[in-house]
Design brief:
About 30% of the residues lie in helices and about 25% in strands. A 7-stranded mixed sheet has the order 3-2-1-6-9-11-12, with helices on both faces. Strands 8-7-10 form a 3-stranded mixed sheet, with helices on one face.
Length: about 190
């Protein structure tokens, strides 16, 4: 199945890369707007977010939205094979980390959060309408979700990243419970 997943990933990376930068910015803004107006966002006081790579959906506007609405927000940092989330406060910075992903600055004395009742905004390369997701193939989010099963998992993607076909899934692949594109919520 690994070869098939790699082929599907490559196809959807190509599709995402073909979206012009100006259109990516427009679609990203629409996604943040849909999220801000949703009951899903309103229902959670704690949000696990991510800092996008250049071709991913840019949801950094969620950080300011959380600060304005007094919600807690945390961003991931890779530590070996683990994904850890650190809470950000106004004035905290992100620095380039593993895989050129922006991560919380070195945590000095901060401890990673272990929020269970939180909304996790999850990037991916491709999703399907059943909530299945392919990331980049290293399993960081899958391992995190396995140890934090109470999180509400919300995939974030452009409509070009939604497969019409059901994606093959392994036992370790936990599906998203919600999926949001610039067109609104699919799940």
């Amino acid at each position: 199945m690994s070869g098939e997943k790699d082929r599907i990933r490559a196809e959807y990376k190509r599709r995402r890369a073909s979206i012009p930068a100006s259109l990516r910015r427009e679609k990203s803004a629409q996604i943040v707007e849909h999220l801000a107006k949703s009951s899903l966002f309103r229902d959670y006081e704690k949000i696990l977010c991510y800092a996008p790579l250049p071709e991913e959906t840019d949801i950094m506007g969620v950080r300011n939205l959380c600060y304005e609405t007094k919600k807690h927000i945390a961003f991931p940092k890779t530590c070996g094979d683990d994904l850890l989330f650190y809470e950000l406060h106004p004035g905290n910075t992100l620095v380039e980390g593993t895989f050129h992903v922006m991560e919380p600055a070195p945590p000095d004395d901060r401890r990673p959060v272990s929020w269970e009742n939180a909304l996790c905004l999850t990037p991916g390369v491709v999703f399907d309408r059943y909530g299945n997701r392919f990331g980049y193939g290293r399993g960081y989010y899958d391992r995190y979700f396995a140890t934090h099963p109470q999180l509400t998992r919300c995939g974030i993607a452009f409509s070009e990243q939604i497969s019409a076909e059901r994606l093959p899934a392994d036992k370790t692949d936990l599906p998203m419970q919600a999926l949001l594109t610039e067109e609104g919520f699919i799940l």
